[in-house]
Structures are given as structure tokens and as C-alpha cells.
Amino acid sequence: MGYNLDSMEQLSRKLQPQDIPVLMVMLKQTDLRTGSEFGLASQCEAAISPVRVAAANDELLLLTDGEDIMSLIADFSGCSPAAQQHAAQVQTELAEARQQLYERKRHEIQLKEAEDARIQRNGLKMTDPAQAAQLTRSEREEVFQRSLKAAGLDKQPRTPAQEQLVQRMYRTMVLGESANTSAKPQ
């Protein structure tokens, strides 16, 4: 909304360090984010520590906002050279923390994808009785749970017909009973 160097100079005259907690709360509101960043940056050294602590506690959102705020402080001539230098150091620290977060998330996604692929392979094995016999009960239960979720049967409450289907699936998939032997004669 037109924030620039003039805006930051005006904010530095109108805001005080005691306004920082309110600005920190406002930072989490999407429509107030830019103004909050400029307001925090206008407070120079007084804002560095609260932003750094908040960024350390609130993963991605404040990591990127924190970097933006530190960049504004580092470039704002209304801040002392020491505050500008300190902000530049914290900006680098936050950028490194963001990179580590991205790497951790990327690794978690890779592990989840590998786990999903393993369960999918086990599910395919269950279509062949010889391969199905090689699966552990735990592996069969994983496939069963995945099948319930895919069929939308993983949530309670279930209708009596759904419950019967779940029990039949459990007997055939996990216990290995034949579909024919588990059916009741009429």
C-alpha cells in the first residue's frame, strides 16, 4: 500500500518500542503484514530481538517475514550503523534457518513418499496369494488401513453395512481368509 522510506521515517516518529508486541500480533494478519513489517523495521534495534525470537518459534511464516524486516532495518538510514549491521547478521541467520527448515521438510516428504511407495508395493503383492504370504501381519495391516482410507471407511461412525464390509476386508486382507470361506451360507 505504498510503503517506502518516507513511510518508515514517519512510522519511526509515530511508533515506540512498546508498540512492538502489538506489531508482532498484527504481523500474523495477512492484510496487515506489510505495514507491520515496516512498523517493526522503523523501531530498529528494539525490534531485532523480538522478531528473531518469534521467527525461531514460528517456522516459515516468521522466518520469511523476519528476513524482510531485517533487510528493511539493514537498509534504513534512520537506524544506527550498529543496528543495521546487527540486522544484516540476523537476516543471514534467518535465511540459514529457513534453508534448514526447507531441507528438513524436503527430507520428511521424501521419507513419506518412500513409505507410501513401500505400502503400495505391498498392496500389489496382496493380489498374488504366494506374495501375500510373504508379508508380515503388520505390513498387511498397513495395506488394510490404506485401503480403508481410500474407500472412505476410515472414519466413525459407520453404517452396519460399512462395518460388515470393513470386517470382511480385515479377515481377507489381514487374516488371509478366503473371501469364499468368510461368507456365511444362506
Percent strand: under 5%
Order of helices and strands: HHHHHHHHHH
Distance between the termini: 74 Å
Rg result:
28 Å
Short account of what is shown:
By secondary structure, the chain is mostly helical. It has helices spanning 5-14, 20-27, 33-41, 45-57, 59-75, 81-125, 129-132, 137-151, 160-173, 179-182.
Describe this structure in words.
With 186 residues, this protein is mainly alpha-helical. It folds into 2 domains: 98 residues, no CATH class; 57 residues, no CATH class. It is elongated, with a radius of gyration of 28 Å. The protein starts with a helix and ends with a helix. 21% of the residues are buried. The C terminus is likely disordered.
Give the topology.
Elements: H1 5-14, H2 20-27, H3 33-41, H4 45-57, H5 59-75, H6 81-125, H7 129-132, H8 137-151, H9 160-173, H10 179-182
Helix pairs in contact: 2-3, 3-5, 4-5, 4-6, 5-6, 6-8, 8-9
Task: Name a few traits of the molecule.
186 residues; mainly alpha; 75% helix
